[in-house]
Amino acid sequence: MRKLIEFVGWTRENVSQRGCMRIGALKETIPGERRVALAPESCKKLIQAGCDIAIEAGAGDDAGFSDAAFAEVGAVLEADPAALTGTSDLLLKVTAP
Fold it and tell me: Cα-flanking dihedrals φ and ψ of residue 25, to 5°?
C-alpha cells in the first residue's frame, strides 16, 4: 500500500485525513476479455486496509464473480462507469481503456 500511495503522490497526512483513497474497477470492454481488475478477496483486503472500493456493476460476471460477491465484502457497486471514473482516485482495468 505504501508504494501505491507514493506512486499517486499522496502524503501520510492526506491518507490519514481521508482514511485512504477510493479505488474503482471498471468492467472490461475488449471482446473476449474475461478478467476483472479486482477480485472480491482483493477488495476485502483493501477495504480492511482502509480503502473505499467501487466496482462497476457486472464487472466480475465474465470472471465468475457476481455483484453480490463484491457487495458481500463491502465494495460499492456503481452502475454508471462515468460516475465511477469521476469519483475514483485510482482506476483499475486489466486492459487499456
Answer: -125, 125
